[in-house]
Amino acid sequence: MFEQTFKNLDDVLWKEAGCSSELDYTEQSSWILFLKYLDDLEQEYEQEAELGDIPYEYIIDAEYRWSTWAAPKKDGKPDRDNAKTGTDLIRFVDNKLFPYLQSFKESASSPETIEYKIGEIFSEIKNKFASGYSLRDALELVDQLTFGSQAEKHELSALYESKIKNMGNAGRNGGEYYTPRPLIRAMIQVVQPRIGERVYDGACGSAGFLCEAFNYLRYAPDGSSRPLKTDELDALETRTLYGKEKKSLAYVIAIMNLILHGVDAPNIIHTNTLAENLADVQEKDRYHVILANPPFGGKERPEIQQNFPIKTGETAFLFLQHFIKYLKAKGRAAVVIKNTFLSNSDNASKALRQELLENCNLHTVLDCPSGTFIGAGVKTVV
């Protein structure tokens, strides 16, 4: 239904001088998709309020709503006479729209609200469209998309995932954003998350693990919806999936990816996970299920290493300690790590292997074939 629209959107972005890579294509389509989604969501909320004879207060002021600046209509058809384009459109987006949306971060009541997410997203990305005519074309294409039904969201989420996959295959850094979905699904089938449990990824990238966990809990293997009760569906959408991400673009993509899967206000925090001191972790902070593919090969600074009992500059080894600490007793975790972890003779590797064998119930080591991660150049295990 929407596949051709996504292809046409890619064509517009490919011709746009300000967008030069798959990362740019995904970033720029993400903020436009987000604002269209938000407008559809607000209209849905308004209709629900009208049915209950309750006045609805819009999150976005009238001047900045999608239906005002992005896709004005007259008698149900695009109103090209009143639609901004060219330089006027770029000036409005850069000088008015983005600053207005950024201000939500300061005025939001808490980081859990959709208002805070709006402010966070638009503080982290910039409009890269140089041509207001290209942006007008992109807006008119995205306006054709609708987010009303679960089936529509399901199709949009699959198309968005394919954009993330293309981005993941586009360059050396793509692995930061994309873990192959068959591997994720295999890991989820082993740990078997359940409704009522909290699922966590402390290096969530584009939220692939959390989205696949959502699909596992929401849909049966044949693709049909599971018969969830209202309170179970509410728990799945609001109190089940949690993530943290350090990088701005990955954070924005994670939010958009979860929204397209049906989570209206995702519990994703934009933070450096490793900056948290493990000595401060309490029982209320822990999770039933942890799924992750943390970055490896990094060199963490001494002040970050001080937060961990086993000191090392290797990013993945610090994340492994973080996950062990954040896992509830009798919880289940599946974590991707480079295979040299099994044989390295440095003190940190030996201490971590000892920790896993003595203080955890190590179930399985899955040796992934080379080429599991395109362009990564390193073998991995789960």
TrEMBL record:
Its EC number is 2.1.1.72. Residues 153-382 form the DNA methylase adenine-specific domain. Keywords: Endonuclease, Hydrolase, Methyltransferase, Nuclease, Restriction system, S-adenosyl-L-methionine, Transferase. GO terms for biological process: DNA restriction-modification system; methylation. GO terms for molecular function: DNA binding; endonuclease activity; N-methyltransferase activity; site-specific DNA-methyltransferase (adenine-specific) activity. It catalyses: a 2'-deoxyadenosine in DNA + S-adenosyl-L-methionine = an N(6)-methyl-2'-deoxyadenosine in DNA + S-adenosyl-L-homocysteine + H(+). Residues 5-130 form the N6 adenine-specific DNA methyltransferase N-terminal domain. InterPro entries: D12N6_MeTrfase_N, DNA_Adenine_Mtase, DNA_methylase_A-5, DNA_methylase_N6_adenine_CS, SAM-dependent_MTases_sf, T1MK-like_N_sf. The keyword Ligase does not apply. Pfam families: HsdM_N (PF12161), N6_Mtase (PF02384). The keyword Transferase applies. Belongs to the N(4)/N(6)-methyltransferase family. This is site-specific DNA-methyltransferase (adenine-specific). It comes from Thiothrix lacustris.
